[in-house]
Amino acid sequence: MQLRRLFFGSLALLALAPGRARAAPVTVPNGVADALPGSGTGLCAASAIATNPSADFDLPNPNGYMEAINGFIEAHAADRVEHVLRSALDLSNNNSSGLAMSYGDFIDAALPECKTGGCDFFANDSTMAFASRLRGFFNVTPDLVNKPIHFGFYADDSVSFTVYDNEFTAYPVVVRPPELGFPSWRMTNQVTFSTPGLYPIEILYTEIAEHAALEMSYFIGDFTDFERPANQPPIVQLDDAGFTLFEPSRFFQTLNGDPSYPDLGVCKQCDRQFINQAGNNGCDAGDYCNEAALCAPCDMAQRCGPTCAPCGGDTPFCVNLDGNLKCGECRADADCADGATCDPSTKTCNTSNSPAGTGGADGSGGSGGSGAEDGGAEGGCGCRAEPTSKHAGSAGILGLAIAVMGLARSRRRTSRASSR
To answer: Compositionally biased, Gly residues: which spans (predicted)?
Structure first.
């Protein structure tokens, strides 16, 4: 009760504005990477307890909501709780008192192990104030491009939703700070994505006291967007209006789609100012701060291994060798030049495994193809393969000529290998 009095005493400074105009529709031009096939791994949530929500959330200043909540989460970098949301975006503290506003619009719609109003928050005590920040990549597949996607929210007490493009420009879709007398809200807004790709998103949520609810859903097609207190007519429940809850499969944490940690429930956020900067910037060794402001493994050509150094030259790919990430010549046979294969144990292009006799019989230049002989060919891995065996000449009339050709090629390979 003391916390609730503190909350309403603080919000007395805010203006009542039940008729607040909804945000304008948003168009986002480009994502930060190509869209991914398959199912995503879910959003990463970072949450912390607020002992003084008036000051922690800067409640007297509703226009500074996003800045205040981001500042609060970063101030708790050492003690915040971080985890992956593996359920539908239907969260609730399942407070059944009064009108059960914590239940939201989607009843018994989340995982079977969740409760009637939704899955548990980071904290479910109705007297505990906290803030949560959800981050990840929204995967915009080709079928979603240039479609009117209406993002819908049911929130008690407050929420904001922002999309970022490839220039890291922020596109606020909804911004709903706490407001005196209206703790529960429904709001929708249209977003159009101009191209397929991965788009960084951020959701900021706060709970002050009593009921806690956060539902995020979507509708594709014609819909009249609105923003209203949940108890203000006309009451339009989003489930009845045809909206669908977002599932974790819609969201990724890394550019290549892999989990950010081996444990699918583990994730870590980083300060947005360090996106794509050199060094680990609060992330673990071998990780970097990616475009969604999440810690991600340095397992790509641009950043590879414990030092997150770029790959290039004769070793253009980031490969896994015995559990260690490092730059290698190839990932698979397709990365090697004409006919060469990729040795899985060394990630080098191996000419000895190409079809026997093709070089001598058709005059194409040897058993490994022109890429290995000439130091790489366009479209291949551009690597100089280490010789692991020599091809013997075929028996018969051409045996002696092929043997001489094989000896000449062997000498050229030995000379190149010794010069590396």
So the answer is: 357-373
